Amino acid sequence: MTFGLTPNRIVVLGANLLIFIHLAWIGRDYMRLLHGKADYTRLELTIGRYLPVYALWAVFVVFVLPPLFGFG
């Protein structure tokens, strides 16, 4: 078994962290919605405003990560 950083491990770890943070943020706003402290529009905005973060991660994975590991 080999330990250490590999491109696949970095990609999966980063994606998991992004998804976890996004789901926590959505959960917070959903709880506020259920308790009547926020409206549905806020929840929609929380979902939509995070899409650029996923796009930036994809750009990092495609254009930055390969040169760091000597690919391309």
How would you portray this structure in words?
- By secondary structure, this protein is mainly alpha-helical.
- It is 78% helix and 0% strand.
- The chain is built from three helices and no strands.
- It has helices spanning 7-34, 40-49, 51-68.
- α1 (7-34) packs antiparallel against α2 (40-49) and α1 (7-34) runs antiparallel to α3 (51-68).
- The protein is elongated, with a radius of gyration of 17 Å.
- It starts with 6 loop residues before the first helix and ends with a helix.
Provide keyphrases for this structure.
72 residues; mainly alpha; 3 helices; 78% helix
* Shape verdict: elongated
Profile the largest sheet: none
The average pLDDT score comes to: 94
Provide the low-confidence segments as ranges.
none
Class by SSE composition: mainly alpha
* Percent strand: under 5%
Helix/strand order = HHH
